[in-house]
Amino acid sequence: MSLMITDECINCDVCEPECPNGAISQGEEIYVIDPNLCTECVGHFDEPQCQQVCPVDCIPLDPGHEESREQLYAKYERIMAVEE
């Protein structure tokens, strides 16, 4: 699954620079995660970095975007191929 940011977000700005895929950006009111770019840090780190730094624990799994670890890794490979 990709991750999502809930409305409990306090706009503290710590998650955005931690995302290795650039999936996090400022939305209209709170930060948002692009599910097309979120790999839960698969391919980069053992754990999602945004969840590690979030002071209010407002970044759960997004039930609307279920993906296996293999699918997340395939997405990571596609993202890295585009960046090259």
TrEMBL record:
<keyword id="KW-0813">Transport</keyword>
<dbReference type="Pfam" id="PF12838">
    <property type="entry name" value="Fer4_7"/>
</dbReference>
<keyword id="KW-0004">4Fe-4S</keyword>
<dbReference type="GO" id="GO:0005737">
    <property type="term" value="C:cytoplasm"/>
</dbReference>
<dbReference type="InterPro" id="IPR050157">
    <property type="entry name" value="PSI_iron-sulfur_center"/>
</dbReference>
<keyword id="KW-0411">Iron-sulfur</keyword>
<dbReference type="GO" id="GO:0046872">
    <property type="term" value="F:metal ion binding"/>
</dbReference>
<keyword id="KW-0479">Metal-binding</keyword>
<keyword id="KW-0677">Repeat</keyword>
<keyword id="KW-0408">Iron</keyword>
<dbReference type="InterPro" id="IPR017896">
    <property type="entry name" value="4Fe4S_Fe-S-bd"/>
</dbReference>
<dbReference type="InterPro" id="IPR017900">
    <property type="entry name" value="4Fe4S_Fe_S_CS"/>
</dbReference>
<protein>
    <submittedName>
        <fullName>YfhL family 4Fe-4S dicluster ferredoxin</fullName>
    </submittedName>
</protein>
<dbReference type="GO" id="GO:0051539">
    <property type="term" value="F:4 iron, 4 sulfur cluster binding"/>
</dbReference>
<keyword id="KW-0249">Electron transport</keyword>
<dbReference type="InterPro" id="IPR047927">
    <property type="entry name" value="YfhL-like"/>
</dbReference>
